[in-house]
Design a protein that fits this description.
This protein has 284 residues and is mainly beta. It is built from one helix and 23 strands.
Length: 284
């Protein structure tokens, strides 16, 4: 079954939520229309996308499996197809292309999810900015539990992946995420654990490393002040340090890592409750 939806109206702008940038997206340097951002805000239950220039998108809902497909004729995308897992009702979002001249955005739903297609509207805030407000039933089903909580509330300034280090100017793996916050902001343990390290490192500055029951470890770096010592047991949401800018740092923030099995760095966003997913195409 395929149903099409289209409506041109106004839409409020998003703001005030943490975002993740996917470093695997690429775009052409030529002066042609292209996709710039594609986002799904779990808290606002809204999909948004923007292009460099105006675009006339087409939207359709396809069943078996249930998914929203949005094509952007004349908007190019030269990266590989990228898929980001979300949760329950909305299982994933992905960006790719139909051909050299058409970008395709897809929102994948859980099998047999009863999506109310008659309530979907493709809305234009401007010729470049578009959105789709999803039904409340999607928001309710997307509420999910996770073993971890966020270590603090702030602005995500760097994601996990390869990058040029802002201080050394060398290409290296950024093994965690950076969350900017004022100096002194409490840093919370994301789960119950034991402090296996707490001290100074030339790169990390003041840092804390926790061992968790599932075998994974978490690391919290660049702290202004440590509130725990090695050997202590901590509870989830307990303050273990305060945000700072110690070590190799360009400003006040928390550098947060997840080490699978205690040694293998993994993207922390896969372990934290999803708030907002952003495909930041223009940033690359």
């Amino acid at each position: 079954m395929i149903s099409r939806f289209w409506q041109k109206t106004s839409c409020a702008i998003l703001g005030g939520v943490i975002a993740v940038a996917l470093s695997t997206i690429a775009w052409t340097a030529e002066a042609r229309n292209r996709l710039e951002t594609f986002s799904f805000d779990v808290t606002q239950n809204r999909i948004e996308f923007a292009t460099l220039e105006g675009v006339e998108p087409t939207g359709q809902v396809i069943a078996d499996p249930m998914r929203i497909v949005i094509d952007l004729p004349g908007a190019i995308y030269e990266g590989k197809t990228v898929r980001r897992n979300i949760g329950r009702a909305v299982q994933a979002v992905r960006v790719g292309r139909v051909n050299e001249e058409t970008t395709r955005l897809v929102v994948e739903f859980a099998p047999n999810f009863p999506l109310e297609t008659d309530r979907l509207r493709l809305q234009a805030r401007s010729p470049r900015h578009w959105s789709i407000q999803l039904p409340e039933s999607v928001a309710a089903a997307n509420i999910q539990s996770t073993a971890f909580v966020w270590p603090l509330v702030g602005t995500l300034t760097a994601g996990f992946g390869w990058r040029i280090h802002p201080i050394t100017n060398q290409r290296r793996l950024h093994k965690g995420i950076d969350i900017a916050a004022p100096i002194g902001t409490p840093i919370l343990a994301v789960a119950d654990g034991t402090v296996v390290a707490a001290g100074w490192d030339d790169g990390y500055g003041n840092f804390v490393e926790l061992q968790h029951a599932d075998g994974n470890r978490t690391l919290y770096a660049h702290a202004h002040r440590l509130l725990v010592q090695k050997g202590m047991t901590v509870r989830q949401k307990q303050a273990i340090a305060e945000v700072g800018s110690t070590g190799r740092s360009t400003g006040s923030h928390l550098h947060f890592e997840v080490l699978v099995a205690g040694t293998n760095p993994a993207d922390p966003m896969a372990f934290l409750p999803q708030r907002y997913v952003l495909f930041d195409v223009a940033a690359r």
